[in-house]
Amino acid sequence: MRLVERLFYKRGQTDVHLSFYQETLPLFKSFILMFQKAEPMVHQLHDELMDLTKTFMACFVKREKLKDIRASDLKQLRLDDSSILRSIKDVYVGTKTQELLSTVETHTRPALDALAVLPISLPGPSTQPLTFPDQFRVKAQEAFKEAGKMLLEKFPLTNPLLRRLSALDPRAIGNDAACKAMQRLKVHFPKVISKDEYAAYDQQCSQINIANDLPPVEDNFRLDHWWCKVIRKGQYPELCKVVKAALSIFTGPKVESSFSGMNDIIDKKTNRLNVETYHAYQEVRYRLKAQNTDALTLYHREDRLRSEVNRTECCYLQRAYGRYSRKLKIRQEEKKEKSKDLGLPVTTQPRKKKISIHDVAKQVKRKIAMNSKTSNKRQRKQ
């Protein structure tokens, strides 16, 4: 009976709910697309968080309460206070949803009246004090309030590091407020810059904010590329150390891509993979991605037999194998010591004799020759 009611008698109400989702969810689209980029966007993170929160709050909060509001005041906004909320009729539901709400009551009321005459009982109360449009707006306001509380709780709007990272934007350089924020960045990276270098760092922040020889800022500039040009000049050594550490804070989907990459390596047979090995794999993968290449292109050889081999890479491979073999020996010794402490017999499995590739090839050739001889003898007998 509920399916019949939803599909035939309340089809318009279902369309209203779907239309509401279609018109409210795009509020987050620009924010999500911006921070799915591969380039660092830390200089815009705080501003985008503020814009998204204020845009979402404007759907049900009075606009004069949000105009020129600071991050600390926005964080302490009490959404349960009805004095700051807009009236139920003014809650944002979207243009198409508003049109559907104006027509759904006229289309569904005759069908519901006819259904009430039938000798059946519908779920829910029989008398409704509010019409469906009013009920929908009340539910929409409650949904906005709960979602707004979650945004205020989860978003780090008052994080000092995010606010000061906005000073790295080259379009903000030359402003006194940006210079102060840039100078305060040093306290967030104690392992990068020491207290003895604070004076030189503050002086370099002042110099870069009054410099006239900085690289030009294009319309579609990348933050890391612009600062790379500044770093190559070598005029601001202490400042550049902090900038490098700040640009290492990625905002893109690196974590999700690393998780998906784990599925390519770790399976039932490789579930005991060492953490250091996986770390090395991810580091090589990110380096290849940064160079816009792959392993086949990077180590391509025209003639596999006669082309020169990269001896540095071979040396790295030999060192890695040596470290791995030493780790295996240490593990075996630890197992023997544990078994001795527990009084268990120490069992050493004999190692299989290693066979080189050339010996394997010789064995294969011998088998092929023997098979060919036996087949020839059979043919002669026949």
Mean pLDDT: 82
Radius of gyration: 34 Å
Number of strands: 0
What sort of overall outline do the alpha carbons produce when their principal axes are compared?
extended
Helix content: 55-70%
Number of folding domains?
Answer: 4
Query: Beta-strand level of the residues, as a percent range?
Result: under 5%
Largest sheet: none
Structure commentary:
The chain has four domains: 2-154, no CATH class; 162-247, no CATH class; 253-298; 310-341. With 382 residues, it is mainly alpha-helical. The model has no long low-confidence stretch (mean pLDDT 82). Helix 2 (11-24) runs antiparallel to helix 7 (95-117), helix 10 (176-183) runs antiparallel to helix 11 and helix 12 (223-233) packs antiparallel against helix 13. It has helices at 2-9, 11-24, 29-34, 42-57, 63-66, 71-75, 95-117, 132-154, 160-165, 176-183, 198-208, 223-233, 237-247, 254-265, 275-290, 295-298, 311-341, 357-381.
Structural key phrases:
4 domains, 18 helices, mainly alpha, extended, 382 residues
Task: Give the topology, please.
Layout: H1 2-9, H2 11-24, H3 29-34, H4 42-57, H5 63-66, H6 71-75, H7 95-117, H8 132-154, H9 160-165, H10 176-183, H11 198-208, H12 223-233, H13 237-247, H14 254-265, H15 275-290, H16 295-298, H17 311-341, H18 357-381
Helix pairs in contact: 1-2, 2-7, 10-11, 12-13
Provide a short characterization of the protein structure.
This protein has 382 residues and is mainly α.
